[in-house]
Amino acid sequence: MVELVRAAESRALRFAPLVLGLSLAVYAWTLGNPANWGMIDLKVYWSLAPNVLSDQLYDVNMPFTADFPLPFTYPPFAAMVFLPVSALPWLAARIVWQVLSVLCLWWLVRTALKLLAAKADQPYDVTWSRRALLWTAVALWCEPVRKTLDFGQINLVLVAGVFAAVVSARQAVAGLGVGAGIGMKLTPGISVLYFLATRRFAAAAWSAAGFAITVALGFLVSAPDSWRYWFELLGAADRVGPVGSAINQSLRGALSRSFGYDVEMSWPWLLAVAVSAALTWFAVRAAVRAGDQLAAVLAVQFFGLLISPISWSHHWLWVIPLVLWLAYGARHLALAVAWVVVTGSDVITFLINQQPSIWDIPRPWPLAALGWVYPALGLLTLAAVPRLLRVGRRAEVAL
Question: pTM for this one?
Protein backbone atom coordinates (compact mmCIF):
# COMPACT_ATOMS: atom_id res chain seq x y z
CA MET A 1 0.00 0.00 0.00
CA VAL A 2 2.76 2.41 0.97
CA GLU A 3 4.62 1.62 -2.24
CA LEU A 4 1.53 2.39 -4.31
CA VAL A 5 1.08 5.72 -2.57
CA ARG A 6 4.72 6.65 -3.11
CA ALA A 7 4.49 5.69 -6.79
CA ALA A 8 1.36 7.80 -7.22
CA GLU A 9 3.05 10.72 -5.51
CA SER A 10 6.10 10.37 -7.75
CA ARG A 11 3.92 10.70 -10.82
CA ALA A 12 1.95 13.60 -9.34
CA LEU A 13 5.12 15.51 -8.47
CA ARG A 14 5.94 15.87 -12.15
CA PHE A 15 2.82 17.98 -12.57
CA ALA A 16 2.91 19.75 -9.19
CA PRO A 17 3.11 23.32 -10.60
CA LEU A 18 0.22 22.54 -12.95
CA VAL A 19 -1.83 20.99 -10.14
CA LEU A 20 -1.30 24.06 -7.95
CA GLY A 21 -2.20 26.36 -10.84
CA LEU A 22 -5.41 24.43 -11.51
CA SER A 23 -6.29 24.35 -7.82
CA LEU A 24 -5.84 28.12 -7.55
CA ALA A 25 -7.80 28.67 -10.77
CA VAL A 26 -10.73 26.60 -9.53
CA TYR A 27 -10.60 28.37 -6.19
CA ALA A 28 -10.62 31.78 -7.90
CA TRP A 29 -13.56 30.65 -10.01
CA THR A 30 -15.53 29.59 -6.92
CA LEU A 31 -14.84 32.97 -5.30
CA GLY A 32 -16.28 34.90 -8.22
CA ASN A 33 -16.33 38.68 -8.29
CA PRO A 34 -14.11 40.16 -5.52
CA ALA A 35 -16.82 42.73 -4.87
CA ASN A 36 -19.02 39.90 -3.57
CA TRP A 37 -16.48 38.38 -1.18
CA GLY A 38 -17.86 38.49 2.35
CA MET A 39 -14.69 38.05 4.44
CA ILE A 40 -16.58 39.17 7.52
CA ASP A 41 -13.67 38.84 9.96
CA LEU A 42 -11.38 40.86 7.73
CA LYS A 43 -14.08 43.53 7.61
CA VAL A 44 -13.96 43.67 11.41
CA TYR A 45 -10.18 44.19 11.34
CA TRP A 46 -10.38 46.63 8.44
CA SER A 47 -13.25 48.75 9.75
CA LEU A 48 -12.59 48.72 13.52
CA ALA A 49 -8.79 48.85 13.80
CA PRO A 50 -8.62 52.66 13.21
CA ASN A 51 -10.68 53.13 16.40
CA VAL A 52 -7.52 52.45 18.39
CA LEU A 53 -6.37 55.94 17.40
CA SER A 54 -9.39 57.48 19.13
CA ASP A 55 -9.40 55.24 22.23
CA GLN A 56 -12.63 53.54 21.11
CA LEU A 57 -11.36 50.19 19.89
CA TYR A 58 -13.65 48.18 22.18
CA ASP A 59 -16.56 50.62 22.24
CA VAL A 60 -17.59 50.25 18.59
CA ASN A 61 -18.98 47.05 17.09
CA MET A 62 -19.48 46.22 13.46
CA PRO A 63 -23.20 45.57 12.86
CA PHE A 64 -23.82 42.04 11.67
CA THR A 65 -27.53 41.33 11.50
CA ALA A 66 -27.25 37.55 10.94
CA ASP A 67 -26.24 36.67 14.49
CA PHE A 68 -24.70 39.41 16.61
CA PRO A 69 -22.65 42.63 16.36
CA LEU A 70 -18.99 41.80 15.96
CA PRO A 71 -16.44 43.51 18.24
CA PHE A 72 -12.68 43.78 17.87
CA THR A 73 -11.44 40.97 20.13
CA TYR A 74 -7.65 41.16 19.80
CA PRO A 75 -5.14 43.26 21.78
CA PRO A 76 -4.52 46.89 20.74
CA PHE A 77 -1.22 45.90 19.14
CA ALA A 78 -3.18 43.84 16.60
CA ALA A 79 -5.20 46.91 15.67
CA MET A 80 -1.97 48.80 15.09
CA VAL A 81 -0.72 46.07 12.77
CA PHE A 82 -3.96 46.19 10.78
CA LEU A 83 -3.84 49.95 10.24
CA PRO A 84 -2.05 49.62 6.85
CA VAL A 85 -4.80 47.21 5.74
CA SER A 86 -7.44 49.66 6.93
CA ALA A 87 -5.83 52.34 4.76
CA LEU A 88 -6.68 50.32 1.64
CA PRO A 89 -10.05 50.47 -0.12
CA TRP A 90 -12.25 47.59 0.99
CA LEU A 91 -12.01 45.83 -2.38
CA ALA A 92 -8.21 46.10 -2.45
CA ALA A 93 -7.96 44.92 1.17
CA ARG A 94 -9.88 41.75 0.34
CA ILE A 95 -7.72 40.92 -2.67
CA VAL A 96 -4.45 41.62 -0.84
CA TRP A 97 -5.53 39.51 2.14
CA GLN A 98 -6.54 36.56 -0.04
CA VAL A 99 -3.20 36.59 -1.85
CA LEU A 100 -1.24 36.99 1.38
CA SER A 101 -3.15 34.14 3.04
CA VAL A 102 -2.51 31.75 0.15
CA LEU A 103 1.19 32.63 0.18
CA CYS A 104 1.24 31.91 3.92
CA LEU A 105 -0.41 28.54 3.28
CA TRP A 106 2.45 27.65 0.94
CA TRP A 107 4.95 28.93 3.53
CA LEU A 108 3.33 26.80 6.23
CA VAL A 109 3.63 23.68 4.05
CA ARG A 110 7.18 24.57 3.02
CA THR A 111 8.32 25.09 6.62
CA ALA A 112 6.99 21.67 7.67
CA LEU A 113 8.57 19.92 4.68
CA LYS A 114 11.95 21.57 5.31
CA LEU A 115 11.91 20.16 8.85
CA LEU A 116 11.00 16.73 7.52
CA ALA A 117 13.77 16.85 4.92
CA ALA A 118 16.30 17.84 7.56
CA LYS A 119 15.15 15.03 9.88
CA ALA A 120 15.63 12.58 7.02
CA ASP A 121 19.12 13.99 6.35
CA GLN A 122 18.03 15.06 2.89
CA PRO A 123 18.59 18.40 1.13
CA TYR A 124 15.51 20.49 0.45
CA ASP A 125 15.75 19.86 -3.28
CA VAL A 126 13.42 20.00 -6.27
CA THR A 127 11.45 16.99 -5.04
CA TRP A 128 10.65 18.60 -1.71
CA SER A 129 9.88 21.92 -3.42
CA ARG A 130 7.40 20.19 -5.69
CA ARG A 131 5.88 18.48 -2.69
CA ALA A 132 5.29 21.91 -1.20
CA LEU A 133 3.43 22.97 -4.35
CA LEU A 134 1.40 19.76 -4.48
CA TRP A 135 0.39 19.82 -0.82
CA THR A 136 -0.49 23.52 -1.02
CA ALA A 137 -2.86 22.67 -3.84
CA VAL A 138 -4.48 19.96 -1.70
CA ALA A 139 -4.53 21.92 1.57
CA LEU A 140 -6.31 24.81 -0.13
CA TRP A 141 -9.50 22.74 0.02
CA CYS A 142 -9.43 21.54 3.63
CA GLU A 143 -12.03 23.01 5.97
CA PRO A 144 -9.73 25.07 8.24
CA VAL A 145 -8.12 26.74 5.22
CA ARG A 146 -11.37 27.38 3.35
CA LYS A 147 -13.05 28.85 6.42
CA THR A 148 -10.02 31.04 7.09
CA LEU A 149 -10.10 32.35 3.53
CA ASP A 150 -13.89 32.73 3.46
CA PHE A 151 -13.93 34.71 6.71
CA GLY A 152 -10.77 36.65 5.90
CA GLN A 153 -9.34 35.40 9.18
CA ILE A 154 -5.81 36.11 10.44
CA ASN A 155 -5.07 32.42 11.05
CA LEU A 156 -2.91 31.57 8.04
CA VAL A 157 -0.76 34.67 8.45
CA LEU A 158 -0.35 34.11 12.17
CA VAL A 159 0.28 30.35 12.10
CA ALA A 160 2.78 30.58 9.24
CA GLY A 161 4.66 33.38 11.00
CA VAL A 162 4.68 31.74 14.42
CA PHE A 163 5.70 28.38 12.95
CA ALA A 164 8.65 29.94 11.12
CA ALA A 165 9.66 31.76 14.30
CA VAL A 166 9.38 28.75 16.62
CA VAL A 167 11.68 26.57 14.50
CA SER A 168 14.25 29.30 13.89
CA ALA A 169 17.70 28.38 15.11
CA ARG A 170 18.31 31.92 16.34
CA GLN A 171 17.02 32.38 19.87
CA ALA A 172 16.19 36.07 19.52
CA VAL A 173 14.36 35.59 16.22
CA ALA A 174 12.39 32.65 17.59
CA GLY A 175 11.45 34.42 20.81
CA LEU A 176 10.64 37.83 19.36
CA GLY A 177 8.57 36.23 16.60
CA VAL A 178 6.49 34.30 19.10
CA GLY A 179 6.24 37.38 21.34
CA ALA A 180 4.88 39.42 18.45
CA GLY A 181 2.40 36.63 17.72
CA ILE A 182 1.19 36.68 21.33
CA GLY A 183 0.76 40.43 21.07
CA MET A 184 -1.40 39.94 17.99
CA LYS A 185 -3.53 37.12 19.38
CA LEU A 186 -2.87 35.43 22.70
CA THR A 187 -3.05 31.83 21.49
CA PRO A 188 0.58 31.68 20.19
CA GLY A 189 1.65 31.91 23.84
CA ILE A 190 1.39 28.11 24.02
CA SER A 191 4.59 28.03 21.92
CA VAL A 192 6.59 29.08 24.97
CA LEU A 193 5.98 25.57 26.34
CA TYR A 194 7.92 24.23 23.39
CA PHE A 195 10.85 26.50 24.21
CA LEU A 196 10.80 25.32 27.82
CA ALA A 197 10.48 21.64 26.86
CA THR A 198 13.48 21.91 24.53
CA ARG A 199 15.47 24.00 27.03
CA ARG A 200 15.54 27.01 24.75
CA PHE A 201 15.29 29.30 27.75
CA ALA A 202 16.76 32.27 25.91
CA ALA A 203 14.02 32.02 23.30
CA ALA A 204 11.41 31.88 26.06
CA ALA A 205 12.90 35.02 27.61
CA TRP A 206 12.90 36.77 24.24
CA SER A 207 9.23 35.78 23.86
CA ALA A 208 8.40 37.53 27.10
CA ALA A 209 10.38 40.57 25.99
CA GLY A 210 8.69 40.65 22.58
CA PHE A 211 5.26 40.35 24.13
CA ALA A 212 6.07 43.12 26.63
CA ILE A 213 7.08 45.37 23.75
CA THR A 214 3.73 44.81 22.03
CA VAL A 215 1.86 45.63 25.24
CA ALA A 216 3.95 48.78 25.73
CA LEU A 217 3.27 49.88 22.15
CA GLY A 218 -0.44 49.33 22.74
CA PHE A 219 -0.38 51.53 25.84
CA LEU A 220 1.62 54.13 23.94
CA VAL A 221 -0.98 54.35 21.17
CA SER A 222 -4.08 53.95 23.35
CA ALA A 223 -3.73 53.63 27.11
CA PRO A 224 -7.53 53.50 27.72
CA ASP A 225 -8.06 50.68 25.23
CA SER A 226 -5.04 48.78 26.53
CA TRP A 227 -6.16 49.09 30.13
CA ARG A 228 -9.65 47.95 29.23
CA TYR A 229 -8.42 44.93 27.25
CA TRP A 230 -5.84 43.64 29.72
CA PHE A 231 -7.79 44.32 32.91
CA GLU A 232 -11.47 44.02 31.91
CA LEU A 233 -12.02 42.09 28.68
CA LEU A 234 -9.26 39.47 28.89
CA GLY A 235 -10.73 35.99 29.34
CA ALA A 236 -14.28 36.89 28.33
CA ALA A 237 -14.85 33.97 25.97
CA ASP A 238 -18.52 34.80 25.44
CA ARG A 239 -17.46 38.12 23.91
CA VAL A 240 -15.53 36.25 21.22
CA GLY A 241 -18.49 34.12 20.21
CA PRO A 242 -20.81 31.23 21.12
CA VAL A 243 -18.86 28.70 23.17
CA GLY A 244 -21.29 25.84 22.49
CA SER A 245 -21.55 26.24 18.73
CA ALA A 246 -20.31 23.35 16.62
CA ILE A 247 -17.67 25.58 15.07
CA ASN A 248 -15.92 25.74 18.46
CA GLN A 249 -13.79 22.59 18.40
CA SER A 250 -12.05 23.05 21.74
CA LEU A 251 -12.55 20.71 24.69
CA ARG A 252 -14.74 23.30 26.36
CA GLY A 253 -16.94 23.51 23.28
CA ALA A 254 -17.25 19.73 22.91
CA LEU A 255 -17.93 19.21 26.61
CA SER A 256 -20.51 21.99 26.65
CA ARG A 257 -22.40 20.39 23.78
CA SER A 258 -22.26 17.02 25.57
CA PHE A 259 -23.49 18.36 28.93
CA GLY A 260 -25.97 20.80 27.40
CA TYR A 261 -24.54 23.92 29.03
CA ASP A 262 -21.31 25.90 29.10
CA VAL A 263 -19.05 23.89 31.41
CA GLU A 264 -16.70 26.91 31.78
CA MET A 265 -13.77 25.82 34.02
CA SER A 266 -15.67 23.27 36.09
CA TRP A 267 -14.55 19.70 36.83
CA PRO A 268 -15.30 18.20 33.37
CA TRP A 269 -13.09 20.77 31.70
CA LEU A 270 -10.36 20.47 34.34
CA LEU A 271 -10.35 16.68 33.96
CA ALA A 272 -10.14 16.94 30.16
CA VAL A 273 -7.29 19.45 30.44
CA ALA A 274 -5.44 17.14 32.83
CA VAL A 275 -5.75 14.24 30.37
CA SER A 276 -4.61 16.48 27.51
CA ALA A 277 -1.67 17.74 29.53
CA ALA A 278 -0.56 14.18 30.35
CA LEU A 279 -0.82 13.08 26.72
CA THR A 280 1.06 16.19 25.60
CA TRP A 281 3.81 15.63 28.15
CA PHE A 282 4.44 12.08 26.93
CA ALA A 283 4.26 13.17 23.28
CA VAL A 284 6.69 16.07 23.72
CA ARG A 285 9.08 13.96 25.80
CA ALA A 286 9.12 11.26 23.11
CA ALA A 287 9.62 13.87 20.36
CA VAL A 288 12.50 15.55 22.18
CA ARG A 289 14.19 12.19 22.82
CA ALA A 290 13.77 11.28 19.14
CA GLY A 291 15.12 14.63 18.03
CA ASP A 292 11.91 15.24 16.08
CA GLN A 293 11.41 19.00 16.16
CA LEU A 294 8.21 19.01 14.09
CA ALA A 295 6.52 16.40 16.29
CA ALA A 296 7.36 18.41 19.42
CA VAL A 297 6.02 21.65 17.95
CA LEU A 298 2.80 19.98 16.80
CA ALA A 299 2.17 18.30 20.15
CA VAL A 300 2.40 21.65 21.93
CA GLN A 301 0.21 23.42 19.39
CA PHE A 302 -2.47 20.73 19.55
CA PHE A 303 -2.47 21.06 23.32
CA GLY A 304 -3.16 24.76 22.87
CA LEU A 305 -6.04 24.08 20.50
CA LEU A 306 -7.59 21.62 22.93
CA ILE A 307 -7.44 23.70 26.09
CA SER A 308 -8.30 27.09 24.61
CA PRO A 309 -11.84 28.24 25.52
CA ILE A 310 -12.45 28.98 21.84
CA SER A 311 -10.83 27.00 19.03
CA TRP A 312 -12.88 27.65 15.94
CA SER A 313 -12.52 24.93 13.33
CA HIS A 314 -10.48 27.33 11.19
CA HIS A 315 -7.95 27.61 14.01
CA TRP A 316 -6.97 23.97 13.37
CA LEU A 317 -4.52 24.84 10.61
CA TRP A 318 -1.85 22.88 12.49
CA VAL A 319 -3.52 19.79 11.00
CA ILE A 320 -1.71 20.59 7.73
CA PRO A 321 1.86 20.12 9.05
CA LEU A 322 0.55 17.22 11.15
CA VAL A 323 -0.63 15.37 8.03
CA LEU A 324 2.76 16.01 6.43
CA TRP A 325 4.52 14.63 9.52
CA LEU A 326 2.30 11.55 9.52
CA ALA A 327 2.93 11.00 5.80
CA TYR A 328 6.67 11.61 5.61
CA GLY A 329 7.91 11.41 9.20
CA ALA A 330 5.88 8.89 11.19
CA ARG A 331 4.68 7.18 7.98
CA HIS A 332 1.29 6.41 9.49
CA LEU A 333 -1.04 6.74 6.53
CA ALA A 334 -4.18 5.62 8.40
CA LEU A 335 -4.07 8.53 10.84
CA ALA A 336 -3.09 10.93 8.05
CA VAL A 337 -6.06 9.78 5.97
CA ALA A 338 -8.37 10.17 8.98
CA TRP A 339 -7.38 13.83 9.33
CA VAL A 340 -7.68 14.40 5.57
CA VAL A 341 -11.19 12.94 5.56
CA VAL A 342 -12.30 14.89 8.65
CA THR A 343 -10.97 18.24 7.46
CA GLY A 344 -11.88 17.64 3.83
CA SER A 345 -15.46 16.48 4.35
CA ASP A 346 -16.71 19.79 5.79
CA VAL A 347 -18.38 18.02 8.72
CA ILE A 348 -18.30 21.24 10.75
CA THR A 349 -20.47 23.06 8.21
CA PHE A 350 -22.93 20.16 8.38
CA LEU A 351 -23.09 20.46 12.16
CA ILE A 352 -23.52 24.22 12.01
CA ASN A 353 -26.44 23.81 9.61
CA GLN A 354 -28.10 21.36 11.99
CA GLN A 355 -28.14 23.71 14.98
CA PRO A 356 -31.18 26.01 15.23
CA SER A 357 -29.00 28.81 16.60
CA ILE A 358 -25.33 29.31 17.31
CA TRP A 359 -26.33 30.16 20.88
CA ASP A 360 -28.32 26.96 21.56
CA ILE A 361 -26.09 24.44 23.30
CA PRO A 362 -28.48 21.48 23.87
CA ARG A 363 -28.79 19.30 20.77
CA PRO A 364 -29.50 15.64 19.88
CA TRP A 365 -26.77 13.36 21.22
CA PRO A 366 -25.63 12.10 17.78
CA LEU A 367 -24.81 15.67 16.77
CA ALA A 368 -23.15 16.35 20.13
CA ALA A 369 -21.03 13.22 19.67
CA LEU A 370 -20.09 14.18 16.11
CA GLY A 371 -19.16 17.60 17.46
CA TRP A 372 -16.18 15.95 19.18
CA VAL A 373 -14.57 15.17 15.82
CA TYR A 374 -11.58 17.54 16.02
CA PRO A 375 -10.79 17.34 19.76
CA ALA A 376 -11.30 13.56 19.88
CA LEU A 377 -8.99 12.99 16.92
CA GLY A 378 -6.58 15.50 18.45
CA LEU A 379 -6.43 13.53 21.69
CA LEU A 380 -5.99 10.30 19.75
CA THR A 381 -3.12 11.85 17.81
CA LEU A 382 -1.35 13.01 20.96
CA ALA A 383 -1.75 9.52 22.44
CA ALA A 384 -0.31 7.95 19.27
CA VAL A 385 2.77 10.18 18.96
CA PRO A 386 5.06 8.32 21.44
CA ARG A 387 4.32 4.96 19.83
CA LEU A 388 4.83 6.33 16.31
CA LEU A 389 8.18 7.77 17.34
CA ARG A 390 9.27 4.49 18.95
CA VAL A 391 8.37 2.59 15.78
CA GLY A 392 10.26 5.15 13.74
CA ARG A 393 13.39 4.80 15.89
CA ARG A 394 13.28 0.99 15.60
CA ALA A 395 12.99 1.32 11.83
CA GLU A 396 16.03 3.61 11.73
CA VAL A 397 18.04 1.18 13.83
CA ALA A 398 17.03 -1.70 11.56
CA LEU A 399 18.31 0.25 8.56
Answer: 0.94
